[in-house]
Task: structure prediction
Amino acid sequence: MARIIGGVATSHTPTIGFAHDRNTKDGGSPNQDQDRILDAFAPVRQWLAEQRPDAVVYVFNDHMTSFFFDHYSAFTLGVGTEYAVADEGGGARALPPVPGEPALARHMATSLVTDEFDMAWFQDKPLDHGFFSPMSVLFDRAGGEWPVPVVPLQIGVLQFPIPTAARCYKLGQAIRRAVTSYPEDISVAVIATGGLSHQVHGERAGFNNPEWDHRFLDALTAEPEALAEMTHAEYATLGGLEGAEVIMWLVMRGALASNVRRVHSSYDLPSMTGIATLVLENPDIEVPTEATERHRARMAEQLAGIERLPGTYPYDIATGVKAYRLNKYLHGMVHREHRERFLADPETSFEEAGLTAQERDLVRRRDWSGLIHYGVIFFMLEKLGAVVRVSNPEIYAAMRGESLEEFLATRNTAMLYSVSGE
Result:
């Protein structure tokens, strides 16, 4: 089964990415401030290179780049196949997309919901400096490729109410159960980003508290339960309002054992944000097999027996990743330009969306049952139906292998309807 080898905590200020990119562009020309920032990450990078984790669970927060207030979630797990660098306004950094780990993410998703965490999922979203600023200095990229896949976990810490420190710590403990119950024999590192002390808004902008930063690093190592009891206002008082994002570090700490070993730590305050690194190594403790089996059984119980329901296909995360491209294309029918393009020139529309030959054929033939079996959720079918003037009952009949008349005969009212508003 999988095991957690340790955790890394790091600030994610754009200063780190800026130092990396400037150093790269300058060909490594001396710059004392940049060198000091980058040197602090060298032991962390070396530890990760020596440990060679097979996957990383990466905790971060977005800064209103790919996640916005039209839908803002507390805990959002990345379940996709890769994550590109986001453009935050001045162009995206020249870094390759980082590969995802969908199988591990899918297992974690089920486990976390089983532990009653109300999660959200994402894919096809680029990630901003909250992710890539430290990522770019934590891993060497031989041949331009990242050496490890990631499962990103975005925490909504910008719009109150936000998760409590205690909830973040409990989430980390749930992540430990999720990872250690994963049946593959892999090693996993947990990386958390954010902080340390800083405030970037209002008349208190520029606030720092190095003394608190050092106390926090010590407490995170030796007494995380005390940190979990603190309120957001207490974190803001000691470390600035934006500095309160260090509660994300408690997710990493909760995923580790109580008796961790501190391998490395560093601290610097070059400008607006305290930049720290921390490496905590997990003891090699085997989880009792019985406990793991009980947890896996709990994960499976909600859909146990569903396979005995004929013609029933739960839409799960694996399906969502597999058929994402086609579901996204059909979801585009909610936009007038997309559906008009589809009606006027479907083949060009298919080509621009990068649909496979199989996907194009399913849409061309309006193979409603085939689309379901491929992995399209029904609610995309009714959107396509609205565009091509096929009613919902006609789709239901086709999926059942019946004529419209045969299907309507099974209803109390023989009526046609769709979601079309035109």
Summary: The chain has two domains: 3-289, 323-408.
